[in-house]
Amino acid sequence: MHIAQDPLSVEVTLPREDVALLTVEGYLDVDTATEFQHHLANQLHHGRRHFLLDLSAVPFMDSSGMNIILRVYQEARELPGSVHIISPAPAVRRILDLTGVSITVPVSESVEEALERVDGLPKAPEAEPES
């Protein structure tokens, strides 16, 4: 008997040039984590520095999903950039809280709140114009 796995859907929008909003829908687990990672890596490759992860439609996330979030968090910090989790579903929020991920990666209730947090971050140093 084959059990159909809910496919993962990731929609990427760009609220700003250096900000990627990834709206994730479905189970974020060992079977779907690679697809999620691919979307994040693609946005990093295209110069995005801030990642807003809308997890409101993710009913379940295992350690594979958390590891990817922590990995992109580390990569974004080196840019410098940031990662923000937006309105995680209750079960996912509980996992984030129990593991301490929500202490490291900020959790916002809306895209607007996450963008305000991005605005409050120190800006990347601008290249000095040559004289």
Notes on the structure:
- The protein is an alpha/beta fold and 131 residues long.
- 40% of the residues lie in helices and 23% in strands.
- It is built from five helices and five strands, in the order E-E-H-E-H-E-H-H-E-H.
- It has helices at 33-45, 63-78, 90-99, 101-104, 111-119, and strands at 9-16, 19-25, 50-57, 82-86, 107-108.
- It has a five-stranded mixed sheet with strand order 1-2-3-4-5.
- Helix 2 (63-78) links the parallel strand 3 (50-57) and strand 4 (82-86).
- The longest helix is centred in the middle third of the chain and has 16 residues, at 63-78.
- The chain is globular.
- The N and C termini lie far apart (71 Å).
Terminal-residue CA separation: 71 Å
Order of helices and strands: EEHEHEHHEH
Q: How large is the radius of gyration?
A: 15 Å
Low-confidence stretches: none
* Oligomer description: single chain
Taken as a percent bin, the fraction of beta residues is: 15-25%
Largest sheet features:
5 strands, mixed
Number of helices: 5
Detail the topology: elements first, then pairings.
Blueprint: E1 9-16, E2 19-25, H1 33-45, E3 50-57, H2 63-78, E4 82-86, H3 90-99, H4 101-104, E5 107-108, H5 111-119
Describe the structure using short key phrases.
single chain, 131 residues, alpha/beta, 5-stranded mixed β-sheet, 5 helices, globular
In a few lines, what is going on in this structure?
With 131 residues, this protein is α/β, with parallel strands linked by helices. It contains 5 helices and 5 strands. It has a 5-stranded mixed sheet.
